[in-house]
Amino acid sequence: MVDTMALLLPFIRSGRMTPTAAHPAAPDTDAPHVPDDEVLLDAADPRLAPVLVAVARGEHAPAAGLLGATRAAREWERRDRYAVRLAAFAHSRPEWLHTWRTADPQDPHGLVVETQLAVDRAWRSPARVEALRELSPLITRAARSDDRDPVPWRIALDHARGARAGHKYFEELWEAAVRRAPHHYGCHVAALRYLASWGQDAHRACLDFADRAAQDAPADSFVQALPLRAAFTCLSGPRGVQVEPERLHAAADRAIALSALLGPADPWPAPIRNLLIHVLARLERPAEALEQLRLNGPYVTSFPWERESDDPLGRFLQVREEVRTAVAGAARRPQRGHGGHAH
After folding, report:
1. Are residues 170 and 224 in the same domain?
2. Range of the domain at 110
3. 264: helix, coil or strand?
4. Which DSSP string do the residues of 161-213 spell out, in sequence order?
5. What whole-number distance in Å separates Cα of residue 317 and Cα of residue 244?
């Protein structure tokens, strides 16, 4: 099974090894603490926030403008995240999207949001496989709407996983996606989730895939966090999953190095830092988790906390308190030096 899934690996160009970060010094236990009532769940970044306000009023033009700007600047990561957030908003309030699609059915920006929404709804259906397969014409139309845009291909990869597409078809989609954007994080996550869906034996293949992708990506690319995502998959898997602990720690080190390159207290890298905090806590590295909490500021993301609780914000606050308690306890314990004397 793993050998078959590893057929995805040739689509990642080999690159030189990127050194992982050394463990940083323990952070100050008196680092600024964000009060519970100031923590924000799934906060939009400054570019998306006013657009969400506009669509709440039924105005779709700002959404079209924002997605148009991301395409013009080839900001594929932002285009992907914005499309996902707009589709999530349209799930409960779809009128503005209906108006948009009726007014300009050829608009590729409205089409990508419509396609994301349709796939999201099909995933929630009890008849998921059949519902997703019925969307194939829509997926094809979105993928053909812009030859440069990898986002419809990321949606197609998610669609193929849910529709239980075969390896050969998935690899064809993958090749088309990375040809458009070799280091697009969303497409890599979609491929990783496809690999992980093939059972317990897939965890090693997930780490192999993620490591090779990160080795070839720029230092500030979100793909540097792909091994972290694979480590989370291993840690969240069924008991008995056997992966070398060193690989999990190396994945966390790589993500720590990425986090150091990103701005503090910024909602844009918050999904990476929330996942990193979770994994560091699971790996019993509370001092480094506390440092990431400091860098993260008030921004909480539903993933990964929703995997453990129906109250992701409450779960985050619980883990944050556990981390702070662990660091404070370690600081109070005497450290034994040579000759048995505390120092």
Report:
1. no
2. 1-13+44-180
3. coil
4. HHTT--HHHHHHHHHHHHHH-TT-HHHHHHHHHHHHTT-GGGHHHHHHHHHHH
5. 29
CA atoms within 13 A on the CB side of 242: 0
pLDDT of 28 higher than 90: no
- 21 domain residue, yes or no: no
**Terminal Cα distance for the chain, rounded:** 53
For residues 240 and 272, membership in a common domain is answered with: yes
Q: Provide the pLDDT for residue 201.
A: 73
Angle, CA 114 vertex, CA 108 and CA 118 arms, to 5°: 140
Calpha distance 75→271 (Å, rounded): 17
Residue with token string 């148009």: 68
Structure tokens at 166: 């075969």
What lies within 8 Å, CB to CB, of 282 at 6+ separation is 235
Which one, of 334, 279, 275, lies nearest residue 303 by Cα?
A: 275
Could you give the CA distance from residue 108 to residue 35 in angstroms, rounded to a whole number?
Answer: 42
Q: What is the pLDDT of residues 83-123, one digit of tens each?
A: 999 999 999 999 999 999 999 999 999 999 999 999 999 99
Over 70: is that where the pLDDT of 6 sits? no
Region 291-319: what's the mean pLDDT? Answer: 98
Number of domains in the chain: 2
* 46, 116, 216, 75: CA torsion to nearest 10: -40
Q: How confident is the model at residue 330 (pLDDT cuts 50, 70, 90)?
A: confident
Mean pLDDT of 158-169: 95
The reply to whether 1 and 53 lie within a common domain is yes
Mean pLDDT of the chain: 89
Last residue of a domain, one of 180, 215, 233: 180
User: Token pair 């990898």 is at which residue?
Assistant: 150
Specify whether the CB–CB gap between 199 and 1 falls below 8 A.
yes
Comparing CA positions, the residue from 113, 67, 68 lying closest to residue 86 is 113
Same domain, 5 and 98: yes
Residues 186-227: tens digit of each pLDDT: 999 999 999 998 866 788 999 999 999 999 999 999 999 999
Of 159, 153, 192, 149, whose CA–CA distance to 173 is shortest?
A: 153
